[in-house]
TrEMBL record:
Protein name: 37S ribosomal protein S25, mitochondrial
Residue ranges, annotated region (Disordered): 220-262
Record-stated family: Belongs to the mitochondrion-specific ribosomal protein mS23 family.
Stretches of the chain forming a coiled coil according to its record: none
One GO cellular component, as annotated: mitochondrial small ribosomal subunit
The keyword rRNA-binding is assigned to this record: no
Subunit structure: Component of the mitochondrial small ribosomal subunit.
């Protein structure tokens, strides 16, 4: 353990001593402020308070005439922390974080859709009514499913997370299918009136893949020929020896045919 560094606590005393020793000609302007408001002398930092996750649910309690709003407090298990992370700020987590993690784990391609990121106040729930999934002025995306699932959990009595997830996903799939049908019908109507569309993304991808395959095939052919030539040079050019042997065999056969039979 190293010694405590008390330089910041003694900054006013150091400035006065430097003025008395003649190192400085005048006192700094903050000398009276530090006297009136001295630095803190607490040398031990307490660990930050752990935040608990509070969830709102509507449950039917025994003996109650109607469902009531209940706030469940999820106790967080205290984990031993390393010394290097002991005094870091505590991470703030919300219930929507776990819902987003589950949805985008099951639907990773939803993250590939183009999105418009706008700054907001974080109170979008005040501008939309999440009693239904499709909202006017808002594009359908994964965040709509999360907000719809959260609304079901907070407003429907005895609703579980898996049931709310199934309801929100079913509505999401139905709207996505409706969008695909509308897009396909719009393309067919445009082509019927003379519109000409370029190649689709799939056709462009296949064309790029074919070009890359042809390039790789030419490279592989040249690389194979180079390896065969190097192997032939290392083995003493067997192809040249085979050609010389075949040439001598042909010459011998020609000499034998030219000799008269006895």
């Amino acid at each position: 353990m190293g010694k405590c560094n008390l330089t910041a606590l003694r900054v006013r005393q150091t400035a006065i001593q430097q003025k008395a020793a003649g190192k400085t000609f005048r006192l700094p302007p903050w000398i009276d402020v530090v006297r009136d408001i001295p630095p803190a002398v607490v040398l031990v930092r307490n660990q930050p308070q752990q935040h608990q996750l509070v969830r709102q649910r509507v449950k039917t309690l025994p003996g109650a005439s109607k469902p009531q709003v209940v706030f469940d407090v999820q106790e967080k298990r205290v984990k031993p922390k390393k010394a290097s992370r002991m005094f870091l700020p505590v991470a703030i987590r919300y219930e929507e974080d776990q819902l987003r993690k589950e949805f985008f784990r099951d639907h990773p391609w939803e993250l590939a859709r183009p999105r418009v990121v706008l700054e907001s106040s974080g109170k979008d729930y005040e501008n939309y009514d999440w009693s239904r999934l499709q909202q006017p002025g808002k594009r359908l995306d994964g965040e709509s499913v999360i907000q719809r699932q959260l609304w079901l959990l907070n407003n429907i009595p005895d609703m579980t997370k898996s049931a709310a997830y199934d309801i929100a996903r079913r509505e999401f799939y139905r709207l996505r299918l409706q969008e695909d049908i509308e897009r396909r019908v719009a393309v067919e109507e445009a082509e019927a009136t003379g519109a000409i569309f370029g190649p689709t993304r799939l056709e462009i991808g296949m064309e790029l893949e074919n070009k890359e395959y042809e390039r790789w095939k030419a490279w592989a052919k040249s690389e194979t020929q180079g390896r065969e030539q190097r192997a032939g040079a290392f083995a003493g050019a067997p192809e040249a020896q085979n050609s010389e042997d075949s040439l001598s065999t042909v010459e011998e056969e020609g000499v034998e045919e030219s000799q008269p039979q006895q």
